[in-house]
Amino acid sequence: MGFPEGFRWGVATAAYQVEGAVHEDGRGPSTWDVFAHTPGRVRDGHTGDVACDHYHRWPEDVALMKELGVNSYRFSLAWPRVQPSGSGAANPRGLDFYDRLVDALLAAGIEPAVTLYHWDLPQPLEDAGGWMNRDTAYRFAEYAYRAADRLADRVGMWITLNEPVVVTAYGYAFGVYAPGRTLMLDALPTAHHQLLGHGLAVTALRGGGARRVGLTNHYSPAWPADPESAADRDAALAFDAFMNRMFTDPVLTGAYPDLTALGGPDLAPYVHDLDMSVIASPIDFLGVNYYQPTRLQAPPAGGPLPFDMVDITEYPVTGMGWPIVPDAFLSLLRTLRARYSNGLPPLYVTENGCSFPDEVAPDGTVDDTARIEFLDAHIAAMRTAIDDGIDIRGYYAWSLLDNFEWAEGYHPRFGLVHVDYETQKRTPKRSYAWYRDLITVPPK
Ligand code: FCB
Question: Where is the signal peptide (predicted)?
Answer without folding.
Answer: none
